[in-house]
Amino acid sequence: MKLTVEGISFHYGSRAVLQDVTLKSAEPGKLTALIGPNAAGKSTLFKCMAGLLHPSGRLLLNNRPLTSYTREKLAEHICYLPQEVTVNAVLTVFEAVLLARKQHASWHASDDDLMAVANGLQTLGISHLSLRYLNELSGGQKQMVSLAQALVRKPDILLLDEPTSALDLHHQLKVLELVQRITVERQMITFIALHDLNLAAQFADHFVVIKDGRIYGCGNGRSMLTTEMIGTVYNVEAQVTPILGERLTITPQRALSREAV
Which has the least CB within 10 A, 224, 231, 232, 245? Predict the structure, then answer.
């Protein structure tokens, strides 16, 4: 599976949100962190990559334009999990995850389907929510259910927009460990947008830094997570300390004024 993003730009009205964005082909089995400040264009980029928005430039799946796929066919390959999920349907957690697995296939649920849903909920530690209705859940619980819906579909390409924003530290680590493991086991192409640079440094293999709708840089943690990048992109003075292997830890020091950057 190959996703090509070359020179894409996108506008909301007259406002440019993405400008000439090109990404190197992501490697299956690797986790790519998309990082950058608020309103940098991360969510819009994911929506373009999922075929929900139609930018200018080249956006290809296996060398075919995304626009040449039906929405149903595209959903078989690419799964996009937005940061905020609106829940209107009166469904239990189990029903919602089962519905996500079936997508546009036959509505008949096989034993394999039921087992896959049960295993997915158990893996995320939310089996106890199976019979709860979605509108009864907390924000963090809804986020876990949305992740279960994404993973049970077994996509080739997974786009996660701040999937841990409503979770406590324990569940943040649990979710990212799971996403990292499943990415390797299933040889998926996984992109994950994160604000926490230390979490990104711990789990990501590759980094894409975006600022003001443009790609600031791409590379591994050592090349991207630098004091210069954090100062320029985030307007923050920070100390970046190498620890084990390729691991880094980022310690923010102070916010910089615009003039100081």
Answer: 245
